[in-house]
Each structure stands twice: as C-alpha cells, then as structure tokens.
Specification:
The complex is a heterodimer.
Chain A lengths: L3 E4 L2 E5 L4 E7 L6 E7 L6 E7 L4 E4 L2 E6 L4 E6 L8 E7 L8 E2 L3 E6 L1
Parallel strand pairs in A: 2-11
Antiparallel strand pairs in A: 1-3, 3-8, 4-5, 4-9, 6-7, 7-8, 9-10, 9-11
Chain B lengths: L4 E3 L2 E4 L5 E6 L6 E7 L6 E7 L2 E4 L8 E4 L6 E5 L8 E8 L8 E2 L3 E5 L1
Parallel strand pairs in B: 2-11
Antiparallel strand pairs in B: 1-3, 3-8, 4-5, 4-9, 5-6, 7-8, 9-10, 9-11
The chains are: A mainly beta, B mainly beta.
C-alpha cells in the first residue's frame, strides 16, 4: 500500500518568515495530494490540494509543488502569521474511491 | 455551515468494556470514513463507506471493531472489548462523492482506555 513520509516533524519560524514542509510517497499510481491543517482539539481541514496533471498550485500565502518523477511534494507558507501555528498533514491517494493515506504530521510554531 | 457531527467528544472506559461512537455526515455526502489518530501521528483509515456499502475495511481490526451505516446516512463504530492500545482520537469524515475530493472531518471522539 501507499506510504507517505513527512518532514520535519516540528518546525519553528519567526513571524513573517517562510515555512516549508516536505513529503514523499511510495505509490507511483497516486495522483491526488491534499494538505490538511489541524488545530488543537479540532479535526483536520483541507487547505490546498494538487493533482498530478499540474506541478504547482498557489492560493494566497500557500503554495504546493509536486515532482511526480521524484515522488515528492511540498507545502510552502509565506509571510507566516501566529494563526498559522497548527499541525499540518500531507496525504496521497490514487483518486476515485481509493483511500487517502496521511503523513505523520508537522507541528508548525510561528513565533510572534 | 454544514458540519460533520460526532459523539461523544470524550469517552473514558476500562479495558474489556464496550464503547460506541456515532457520526452524522454532511447531508448529501455519500462517502463516510472512520479514521483513528494516535497522539502525534497522522490519521489512519479504519473503514470507508459508499452509501451503506463498505468500500475499504482492510485496516479495521475485525475481531474487536465493527462499523455500520445501515441507511447510508449516519454511522456507528463499535469496539468490544476495548484494549489499552485503543486509546486514540476517532475521527469521522465525509465527502460528496469519494472521488479524491475534500474530506470534511468532525471534531473527533477522544477515547481513553484505563
């Protein structure tokens, strides 16, 4: 089955700096890569996703890049703010009704 | 805004007891998922339903866990008997069609087994 590895497990940045989280996946048939943000005591919430037919997608301060050849994808957050502090999960899926496999998570702390 | 409802939010039980969790997905969402999240780890899929049918339960420990979605709407996840290693957050999620789209998660049910 699919295996998703995520790094780093913790990340501290100063407010205004950029944060980068990296993930690798094992199943070359995966074609859908979402990113979820989980705040304390809440369920994960989708923040951005990318499909295999594009290499990059951006939404305001958040961007995701995908390298299918190397089987890795990354989340970039620019101009970080304290409210960005949370746990971020990457995930991968083959699409259709195939299950979504999550990474182990990155705890991001933005220091004011 | 429509939300996925879960209950109870917190459950403390002793090992060997039975426990049940309930989930009501967003109206109109055909696909329902139960995930288990151990502290410090990512969510792990236990079971996935399409309407009332099980699509994937390959990671569900069937000797003690069961899940049902009888009318294709709300769902119940049961553990009997509970073991110490079952302590975790049990997350329910739903999606409109299950076709690799956004999963909408509930706030979860935190289980502590003593």
């Amino acid at each position: 089955g699919e295996n998703v590895e995520q790094h780093p497990s913790t990340l501290s940045v100063q407010e205004g700096d950029s944060a980068v989280i990296k993930c690798t996946y094992s199943d070359s048939a995966s074609n859908y890569f979402p990113w979820y943000k989980q705040e304390l005591g809440k369920g994960p919430q989708l923040i951005i996703d990318i499909r295999s037919n594009v290499g990059e997608k951006k939404d305001q301060r958040i961007a995701v890049t995908l390298n299918k050849t190397a089987k890795h994808f990354s989340l970039h957050i620019t101009e970080t703010q304290p409210e960005d502090s949370a746990v971020y999960f990457c995930a991968a899926s083959r699409g259709g009704y195939q299950k979504v496999t999550f990474g182990t998570g990155t705890k991001l702390q933005v220091i004011p | 805004e429509a939300e996925v409802a879960q209950s109870p939010r917190y459950k403390i039980t002793e090992k060997s007891q039975a426990v049940a969790f309930w989930c009501d997905p967003i109206s109109g969402h055909a696909t329902l998922y139960w995930y288990r999240q151990i502290l410090g780890q990512g969510p792990e899929l236990l079971v996935q339903f399409q309407d009332e049918s099980v699509v994937d339960d390959s990671q569900l420990p069937k000797d003690r866990f069961s899940a049902e979605r009888l009318k294709g709407v709300d769902s119940t996840l049961k553990i009997q008997p509970a073991e110490l290693g079952d302590s975790a957050m049990y997350l329910c999620a739903s999606s409109f069609a299950g076709d690799a789209g956004e999963l909408f998660f509930g706030e979860g049910s935190r289980l502590t087994v003593l």
